Amino acid sequence: MPDGVRLSVTLTVPILTRRGETFPVLLQYKPYRKDDSLLYADQSDARYLARRGFIIAQVDIRGTGSSEGILVEREYSTQELNDCEHIIQQLASDRRSNGRVGMYGISWSGFNTLMMGTLRRPRALRALFAAHATDDLYKSDIHYPDGIMHLDQYLIFIDHSNAIPAPIDYNMNAQWIRERFRRRPWIDVYLSQQLDNSFWKENSIKYAYDNLTLPVYLIGGLYDAYRDSPLRIYEKTRKNSPKIKVTIGPFVHAMPENVNRHPGPIYDGKAEMVRWFSHWLKDDQKDSEIIKEPDITLFIRTSLTTGHYRYETEWPIVRQKIRRMYMSKDHKLIEQKPLMTNLNENKVFNNVDILEYRPWIGFEAGTWLGGLTDDQRPFDKDSLIYDSEPINQAVELIGVVNVSLQVSATVRLAHWIVRLEDVDPNGQIALITTGALNGAQRQTPPAYLKPNCQYTITFPLRFTTWTFLIGHRIRIAVSNAMFPTYWPSPFPMNTSLFFNSSTTFIDLPVLPVLSSSTPPAFTQKQVSPTDTLPEMFSGAKPRVYKTYETNTKTTVNFERISYELLPNNYFMSALQTFNLSCSHQNPGDVHWSGRAQQTYVFDVHGYRSIDDVPLRSGVQELYPNIDLSTRPYFILLTQSDVRSDREYFYVNFKRQLFRSNSSTNKPSEEFIFTGKHKRLFQ
């Protein structure tokens, strides 16, 4: 880089078929440690793409993984994007490059792919491919979804990973301690930015849509939190770009070909990447089919695990009609405007439903606005629910459900969460989509509610597709909590929902149900076994996600343990766990506690796969069952703790390094950090 800092790149280069042959370059740019934690996954992707005529450049962001430098101060920093401009310039100038660069990635590397194509636009960058990325870093990202604070395993993972020394030699010297180990934890950074301000807006591409003039392929997942962004970006930028292609399928936060994670049918997403970049970056494929195909491919769900793919030629879809339905007394959802005995006096008993706030409910809706969820009946019993009559003709939804509610609260802050659900004839309840509003953010700038004052609030639910089958009911569920997805508002309260046909309703984006059609050919293509590297050196225990409830509090627990057998005879294990608990008596009393441990053992010889390495049992399961007294090893332990009361958030953070050459059980290095932040409309 211009300041002398060296960033680590892994280049995978195709085999030349003729002298002087050049190739386009595909760049993936992220902080997730390409040389140990993601080594085998990244190698598999690079091998696939290089065999199809691309140079693959995988780069660790400054101060992370194998790159040099001081850890960047946050996600998507100005330094990160500055460095990326220089990387693209260098890659385009490489003698093996044809001068054309594409960027690709999922999640973080999808985010900065869109940022580089919109906010920086270096000349050599010609095309983009982004999966599960967002255009809004505040309301449509992980820290404050819908303007409400969220914490899960990501924050302990990233604050831990950021401090691990660089492979391959894992040099734990004074420079590493200064540049990584003792850096301010990002969890504290984000707690200091609770409102939608310049911190979030600076690199959110929604404020620069007009700058997105490159061709872009966007992938979204119906079981992922970022499913709104692809079509929102498409609608705002399609006139500027030569081609924007959108595919939204039955995916969680993973690429479409990830066979072990998705609830619905999969396809070879990397093959789509090859088709896309071949058209835009190679000289001999300008007439490829992908440019002639319709822009939009959607998976139309008929249940949580079934459905079918189809093309759409436009967005918004012209044949879409809005069906308005009204929440009414006796917990009914009706299409005719409800008759009200006194429209000017909503406090008439029959015209209002009152809900007691239970801040600990919502486990059944998942940890973070995504994933395959269970039966919603336990959640619904503590919510206001409104059901339609059994439908006599199938109803297909594609798009965004918009909600309007006339509400009040007995305190100054409340959140409203609305869920669209499907009730089958047997009473099973499927969660289709959700949306929420932080009551203080009903306006700009935010302001507290006036207790017992009525407000009309409007907000969208997340993009969805669904088919309500004959005999099923449409349900709307309303609550003031969805724990652990949203950090609870801090005051005991009741809220009221008023039945007024002009202010309390939902708008469903309904389409005529089409007869079956031939699905797009690319959605039927599976990954060839010859393109799949065997997962011989990576392993993991099943993820644990469960809840515990007593009379006084509810606690949600997450745990994940993974193992890697790395080159140079290194063994690595990784633990991520968190507990999030909420008091039943005091909604302000919420406690998140995260713990991560990385164990590296060297000189682990003679094992052909990770399954061959014996592991200790019980609390020692992070260690191989071999003689550690004769081998060097180190352990990095991170503990992160966030508590709240009604007025503040409190951060207690600790990193510890344990080394095999230590004569005691005490850490050889330790970093302790504390923080305190006033609650700002949270």
TrEMBL record:
Superkingdom classification of source: Eukaryota
Record carries keyword Hydrolase: yes
GO molecular function, one term: dipeptidyl-peptidase activity
Ranges of residues in domain Xaa-Pro dipeptidyl-peptidase C-terminal: 274-507
UniProt KW Hydrolase keyword: yes
SMART domains reported for this sequence: PepX_C
Keyword annotations of the record: Hydrolase
UniProt cross-references to InterPro entries, sorted A to Z: AB_hydrolase_fold (IPR029058), CocE/Ser_esterase (IPR005674), Galactose-bd-like_sf (IPR008979), Xaa-Pro-like_dom (IPR000383), Xaa-Pro_dipept_C (IPR013736)
Gene3D superfamilies listed in its UniProt record: alpha-amino acid ester hydrolase ( Helical cap domain) (1.10.3020.10), alpha/beta hydrolase (3.40.50.1820), Galactose-binding domain-like (2.60.120.260)
A Pfam family this chain is assigned to: Peptidase_S15
Name used for this protein in its record: Xaa-Pro dipeptidyl-peptidase C-terminal domain-containing protein
